[in-house]
Amino acid sequence: MQQHIHEGRCDCGHIHYRMIDQPLIVHACHCRACQRQTGSTNAVNVLIEKHKVELLSGEVTEQIVPTPTGYGQQITRCAKCKTVVWSEYLIFAERRGAPVRFIRAGTLDDPGAFPPDVHIFTSTRQPHLNLSGDVPVYPEFYDIKEVWSAESYERFRKMKRENGRRLITTTDGSSVSI
Known about the structure:
- This protein has 178 residues and is of the alpha+beta class.
- It has one domain (5-164): Metal Binding Protein, Guanine Nucleotide Exchange Factor, Chain A (Beta Complex), CATH 2.170.150.
- It has four helices and twelve strands; from the N terminus they run βββαβββββαββααββ.
- The strands form three sheets. The protein has a seven-stranded mixed β-sheet with strand order 6-7-8-9-4-3-10.
- A hairpin with a 5-residue loop joins β7 (73-78) and β8.
- The longest helix is centred in the last third of the chain and has 13 residues, at 150-162.
């Protein structure tokens, strides 16, 4: 089996990381939080199992920011230039039992290799953005089993089976088992 390796960096080059596999799926998220956090119309996130991302060099900082669900999002940035390199949505791990990193596609050395597979939360997309084409569009989120490829869904199921539950603290201070 061929191993797929993709590397990425922050803006200043301090952070260097590697993804060791193809993504599970690539989202173009049009929610208002992604618009505000990126200062753009949407964020493009490459989803991959957490254990398949290696930090090769540099120091990161992590911060949990609020999300509409109340669970929060842990954002990982370069400690020097503050570029967001990836994040983890805590509700994703809680509801689906799988620790997944959302790599910011623009930080990959070849971001063009990862066009969106799906557009999500398009109910809040900017009206000037035309989403006509072959990429599926969802007003909110979607059913993973129906949208992901069979291979990605099986990787996801395997991750859920192997993931031990752990306790995290949400942005409101309550504890959740993930």
